[in-house]
TrEMBL record:
Pfam family, one: HTH_11
InterPro entries assigned: aa-tRNA-synth_II/BPL/LPL, Bifunct_BirA, Biotin_CoA_COase_ligase, Biotin_operon_repress_HTH, BPL_C, BPL_LPL_catalytic, HTH_11, WH-like_DNA-bd_sf
PANTHER family, per database record: BIOTIN PROTEIN LIGASE, BIOTIN--PROTEIN LIGASE
E.C. number(s) listed in UniProt: 6.3.4.15
Alphabetically ordered keywords of this record: ATP-binding, Biotin, DNA-binding, Ligase, Nucleotide-binding, Repressor, Transcription, Transcription regulation
Enzyme class: ligase
Name assigned to this protein: Bifunctional ligase/repressor BirA
BPL/LPL catalytic domain: residues covered: 70-261
Domain of life per record: Bacteria
Organism: Heyndrickxia acidicola
Length: 324
């Protein structure tokens, strides 16, 4: 955060809800009125609600809701997930922090959450756009006693938990595109990134990264994402409490994680399929080694996508980008 912005916020906070003129602000902070105006616009983008009245100036009406430890802890009903919270105003990537904590032996359920990521990551070498205060950018550390081959199932379990939480908190009904996208109206509202720390036969930690576009407006997305991304606010037309949604996701995920450890993937597979968008459809799977076209016929008990090509041959897809 720039020092001008910090001083601007300090000035507003000292004014305690009273108006401050652009001129007064410029003098307090020692910059031009144009600079003040630019910073006010930036604050608006970040979720501050500011009132501007002619001849009086500006005042802050509401500050953005934070996703700090207090906000998430208050009302959190889980036993394990989110019992340890690492909150950051800004970070490179919550995945990176969670990996470090996991290496250092942090407890299962540790949550890393940030207001902003400046180097958010997608799969492979892709980036994840994570602007300040408007989304949920979080990573969870789980330590299931399982072989590494089971790890991809956690992406699917997390997707089910997120879809159900969005239904419950927002009254919206998204679908899942295998393996890691949650879509609304064909646009991506959530991406999931599951990473692993493991020996050849044993998982030490699974890091589940979840990125959800929550309160962004349509114009907030950069040009290249405008046609492929959406936010819960855009779909619902109402701002949504990020902390409330995080709490609901943690609760659902804890429940499904327990079911999975007790009874295996079968019960979750049924749930996952009920939200799946691509099953039964003709798709093209772009894998690292080439592309396979055919009909998505289902997922296996391991979470592998089954695609039937024109010759009736079934292909197992372990990881790919799906074109529908
Ligand atoms: C994903 O990758 O969808 C996984 C995204 C995981 C993000 C979370 S946020 C918390 C944690 N910390 C991190 O650093 N990451 C995780 P993939 O399927 O590879 O999709 C990436 C592609 O989605 C990009 O190449 C863009 O086309 C698009 N994209 C980027 N940012 C987006 C956004 N905010 N909303 C929708 N689409 C986006």
């Amino acid at each position: 955060q720039s020092t001008t912005r910090k001083r601007l916020l300090e000035a507003f906070s000292a004014a305690d809800g009273e108006f401050l003129s652009g001129q007064a602000l410029a003098e307090i902070i020692g910059c031009s009125r144009t600079a003040i105006w630019k910073h006010i616009e930036e604050l608006r983008k970040d979720g501050f609600e500011l009132e501007a009245v002619r001849r009086k100036g500006y005042r802050i009406i509401t500050t953005p809701e934070k996703v700090n430890e207090n906000e998430i802890r208050l009302g959190l009903q889980t036993k394990v997930l989110g019992q340890s919270i690492h909150y950051l105003e800004s970070t490179e990537s919550t995945q990176k922090i969670a990996h470090q904590l996991a290496m250092e032996g942090c407890p299962e359920g540790t949550l890393v959450i940030a207001e902003e990521q400046v180097n958010g990551r997608g799969r492979l070498t892709r980036t994840w756009y994570s602007p300040k205060y408007t989304g949920i950018w979080m990573s969870l550390v789980l330590r299931p006693k399982l072989p590494p081959i089971m790890a991809p199932q956690f992406t699917l379990i997390a997707a089910v938990a997120v879809v159900q939480a969005i239904e419950e908190v927002c009254g919206l009904y998204p679908g899942i595109k295998w393996p890691n996208d949650i879509l609304m109206g064909g646009r991506k509202v959530t991406g999931i990134l599951t990473e692993l720390q493991a020996d050849s036969d044993r998982i030490n930690a699974i890091i589940i990264g979840i990125g959800i576009n929550v309160n962004q407006e349509k114009e907030d997305f950069p040009e290249e994402l405008r046609h492929i991304a959406t936010s819960l606010f855009v779909e619902k037309g109402e701002k949504i409490s990020r902390a409330g949604l995080v709490q609901c996701i943690l609760l659902k995920l804890e429940k499904y994680y327990q079911i999975y450890m007790d009874r295996g993937f079968a019960p979750l597979k049924i749930l996952w399929e009920s939200y799946a968008l691509s099953l039964g459809k003709n798709i093209i799977a772009h894998t690292l080694t080439g592309k396979i076209s055919g009909r998505a016929v289902g997922i296996s008990d391991e979470g592998v996508l089954k695609v039937e090509d024109g010759n009736g041959q079934i292909h197992d897809i372990y990881s790919a980008d799906i074109e529908m």
